[in-house]
Structure prediction request, 250 residues.
Amino acid sequence: MSEFEKNVSADSIYQKPQENIDDFSFNRQVVDVFPDMIERSVPGYANIIDGIGRLASKFAVSNSHIYDLGCSLGAVSLSVAKHNQQLDVKIIGVDNSSAMVERCQRHVSSYNYATPIEIQEADILNLEIESASVIIMNFTLQFITPKLRDALMAKLYEALIPGGVLILSEKIKLGHASMDSAIIDLHHDFKRENGYSDLEISQKRTALENVMILDEYSVHEKRLLKTGFDAVSIWYQQFNFVSFFAIKGA
Ligand code: GEK
Prediction:
């Protein structure tokens, strides 16, 4: 366990009743508890992080960039660096939360993988992306305003080299009332088993309501095919948390 992991505080942000629940934001308070929060909230998080590193290594090519968009504390960037076998690859992690970026830079620099990792503070929507063999958005697209998602996918497609891959992970809607309700119950059971109370679960849900907007998987798939990607496939799913990848034709 690294020094960083030993210093992670437990997430107690929504433990006490709050009269007015502010919209969720990736501020300093969230950054302080982020590894604990995401591990206890996203089923399969550790498997997804490891799997993305392994999957990225199948598509990374020499003299290219690998982007980790919405990198938070750099878990994906570090997994990609750990598994990368290609020379002259640069991993670029990007986040628009200055609190995240500051902590991420310190965290990432405590590792010493051969593949360099550069962390930038920027909004993905304004970012210039180029020469990418792999682009990853691990639970980030759901925080982008829905009407901007088509254009963002088109920009990522353009930035990929032929044969490149886009790896997306998202919480999804199932699009059927009783199926959604069953799966949401399973997710809430998962959170309860990880120590969150009903109050914490419901207050967090309220905080996320206006900022995390979910699509159905079929919407993601259609959008990517319409953008020009050759094929889209799920490689991991637990409950309503899905990770999938799309290939740009060679
Ligand atoms: C992980 N990928 O640990 N531009 C840049 N960053 C953004 C934007 C934007 N427009 N919108 C949101 N973010 C990570 C987890 S968390 C998901 C990703 C979660 C950033 C935001 O600041 C946050 O750090 C991240 O996207 C989403 O694998 O907490 O559910």
In short: Residues 101 and 121 are 6 Å apart (CA to CA). The first strand starts at residue 64 and ends at 69. Residues 177-193 form the longest helix (17 residues).
